[in-house]
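Q: Okay, next protein. This is Protein prenyltransferase alpha subunit repeat-containing protein 1 from Umbra pygmaea. I've checked the sequence twice, so it should be correct. Can you predict the 3D structure?
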Amino acid sequence: MAESEEEVDVLVQRVVKDINNAFKRNPNIDEIGLIPCPEARYNRSPIVLVENKLGVESWCVKFLLPYVHNKLLRYRQRKQWLDREALVDITCTLLLLNPDFTTAWNVRKELLQCGALSPQRDLYLGKLALTKFPKSPETWIHRRWVLKQVVRECSPPETDRKEQNGGEQRDAAERTWLSERLHRVLYDEMKVCADAAGRYPSNYNAWSHRIWVLQYMAQGDLKVLHDELSSMRQWVSMHVSDHSGFHYRQFLLKALVKELSQAPISSPPPKDCRPSPDPRCHQAHLSEQVNGEATVAAPGSPPPSPEEKPSLPAVPQLFQQEMDLCTDLIQSFPGHEALWCHRRHVFYLWHHWRMDHNQHNGQGCVIRSPKLKHANPGLSCRPHVVSPGAVSLEQSENRNGQAHESQDAMEVDGVPDPHCTKRLKRGPPCPPVLPTEHGFVASVLDGCRSPEQGRFALAYRKWLDSVIGQ
């Protein structure tokens, strides 16, 4: 029995060495996995390295895992001494086989704090472990700890070097280098989260970590938030049943709306939105700059030059784009509850944002939604922008006991003017209101062939009437 144990120890030590040699030969390994092999058939190493993929034959795991596990526990109990290099090798092998072993991650924290490990090397190990165990909670927790160390390194303490020659230039160059490094780490972390989410459906741990990264490393960065929202369109289009992906889009949408709504207005209000005898006030074209400042373009003004065009849309345009995405996905992939839940959440956010901004916005314009008695889904999808001194549609009704509408109010009972319709189509997009949502549900029910699609559409219409239509 003693000879057998000695043979196992020799075998396991050789396997641990082979794993570490594989990383030395190819530092670009991007995936690990187990190769089904019940027993050793050849007199060769069970570690297989093909291109950038590392495989471990399954027969050796029953010997390898208990060995490295017990060896690390004996070290923690101070029954066996291991140097730093041996600890790095042991924890690497153990975490590739069992990444939820908290003690191993704690040992690597100590190695990182004493300088035996770099944060990039630890993030790389966690990335490899997630290719085999994409939902490992301990791995995500450790990554957050390492990322905090990276952020701390990228925020050096302020030092007074202005008196030195060239001190300001060195400070600027150092800040630029640290900012680029932090941006690379952020980009790599987004990719790790996306890969883990694609490997395991509804991977709550991966999506929660992705939200944490944005909140901790890109808080208030409009460009990062908008780029994430744009890049996620393809992912959710390929995972239409994954609620976690749509929940992430909801987080991005709320974060963008919050930042854009708090941004100051950089230009004065247009002429048509100031109090005047004319009750008509054309809708201003709101657009957002990268830094969050809103600019208002008056109707009839020349289009901006390519250099002046904003790279971020305004809040109504964000909601319009999201509702268009929901419409396309619901029509292309009928019968998926996640799509209808996402549409419900987006319309709920838009409804409350519009209600909150119906009051005076500080620029002399009030955004109002027309109150329709005869709802035509194809009409009145664009909110009116009314000046404070003008008479709104609601105020013009029931004057002296008679229903009276403003001259410029849109006719909803008759056929709309085709020229007016063309002007509306050329105008800026605007998210739908309650009548257009009812029209969308009706169109879905008319051509519905899926019983699940019809059930979700009826539930959505009931929600509209009970929550929004009150």
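A: Here is a summary of the prediction. The CA atoms of residues 290 and 312 lie 6 Å apart. The chain has 16 helices and eight strands.
Q: Noted. On to the next one.
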